[in-house]
Amino acid sequence: MYDYLIVGAGLYGAVFAQQKTEQGKKCLVIDRRDHIAGNIYSEQIEGIEVHKYGPHIFHTDKENVWEYVNRFAKFNHFTYCPVADYRGELYNLPFNMNTFTKMWPDVKTPADAEKKLAEQRAEFAEIEPKNLEEQALKLVGRDIYEKLIKGYTEKQWGRPCNELPSFIIKRLPVRMTFDNNYFNHPHQGIPIGGYTAMVEKMLIGTEVRLDEDYLSNRESYDALADKVIYTGQIDEYYGYQFGELQYRSLRFETEVLDVGNYQGVAGMNYTDSDTPFTRIVEHKHFEFGNRNPDKTVITREYSQTWSKGMDAYYPVNDAENAALYEKYKELSDKESKVRFGGRLGTYRYMDMDQVINEALMDAGA
Ligand code: UDP
To answer: Checking DSSP bridges between strand 279-282 and strand 296-305, what pairing results, if any?
Structure first.
């Protein structure tokens, strides 16, 4: 008999299991995939660590989380500085002085940029943004919205910007310095040796069984443990009884190329609406001193509407889905044996550090 059955060997499940095992509890982690680490899974191709389910850049402002992950991996000093390709014009992201001086050649100083942005924003100054389009126009004005936000966002979320909630865009900083670092947090990096090795280390001492599908044999799994921690989709757990929550899924096209350096940067966002993919990730740039000079691995990322059988990546946090999630949440609040955690279990667009923080709290650390 186990104290905890943890369904899902992703980040939430691994941290929760690690904590409980450390507290002397007996845990079993199962996952229906054939590998641990969920969507942060990475594996070597041509000596390059490849992020199989999309790029993951670890960043946090939570000291406890930073100390925690450093127990399981050393982090390199990678900072994410993606570039946007708009019909062949290249711009630095996030929106900063490098972006502004390229977008508007007469802008040279922060004061020039402020003035230009004020002009660009003027017609939207008085509006109270009701959707992402209005929010973006109010934040950065027409030029940046048209070239760097509209196409990318509509591909990413599969619907027009004026039908999307405005908070999505608030993730993006606007900076009056020549600083291309995408994140504002004091700690950032990629685990040396890869995310899979980090999760493997978390799971030392915990029993893990792969290729095991909890939902196909729920009763016999439940009988194994006192408590169940479920990190899969909450609507799937409840048999979609109130209907399906919406998710965005991704399709990845990964290629090994016989060139040493394809795009010179880890992330290139294609921000026009015609290019069918949202971005190209060149994995070797996440590592420093990668010693394969002749080959590189790139992944084109296509955003798509989730349907049953696909992997779910992003919850669609609009009002309609929030209301539907609340119905599932009500059911889950009444459970005494099972608890839900992680991005899919709680239907929230969380970063890795938030997921870890919640797992630590839920495990009573
Ligand atoms: N975004 C954009 N242009 C870009 C990159 C991002 O307009 O080149 C917007 C887009 O709406 C996206 C949001 O910013 O959904 C958040 O992007 P982020 O890169 O934080 O998303 P994630 O890394 O989680 O996919």
So the answer is: antiparallel
pLDDT recorded at residue 46: 95
Q: Which atom of ligand 1 is nearest to the CA of 136?
A: 7
Is the CB of residue 137 less than 8 Å from the CB of residue 145?
Answer: yes
Residue 309 region by backbone torsions, left for phi larger than 0, else alpha for psi between -120 and 50, else beta: left
Element (H, E) at 91: strand 89-92
* DSSP at 163: G
Pocket test residue of 89, 171, 250, 281 for ligand 1, highest count of atoms within 8 A of CB: 171
Mutation probe of ligand 1 site: the residue of 96, 132, 152 with most atoms within 8 A of C-beta: 152
Q: What value does the mean pLDDT take over residues 3-11?
A: 98
Asked if omega into 94 is within 30° of 0 (cis), the reply is: yes
349 catalytic residue (yes or no)? yes
The dihedral over CA atoms of 251, 256, 257, 260, expressed in degrees to the nearest 10, equals: 110
Cα 261 to middle of ligand 1, angstroms = 24
> What tokens does 14 get?
């691994």
Q: How far apart, in whole angstroms, are the C-alpha atoms of residue 334 and residue 83?
A: 47
Indicate if the pLDDT at residue 171 is higher than 70: no
pLDDT at 169: 85
Give the chain's length: 365
Domains and CATH numbers, the chain: 2-78+186-245+316-362 (3.40.50.720), 94-169 (no CATH)
pLDDT at residue 288, as a whole number: 86
Least confident of 122-126, 178-182, 224-228: 122-126
Structure confidence at residue 365 as a pLDDT band (50, 70, 90):
low
Kindly indicate the confidence band of residue 73, based on its pLDDT and cuts at 50, 70 and 90. very high
Q: Compute, in angstroms, the gap from residue 153 CA to the centroid of ligand 1.
A: 7
Catalytic annotation on 112?
no
- Concerning whether 175 is annotated as a catalytic residue, the answer is yes
Distance in Å, CA 80 to ligand 1 centroid: 13
DSSP conformation letters of 126-156 = T----SHHHHHHHHHHHHHIIIIIHHHHHHH
Q: Is 271 in the pocket of ligand 1 (CB under 6 A)?
A: yes
Cα separation of 4 and 199, whole Å? 18
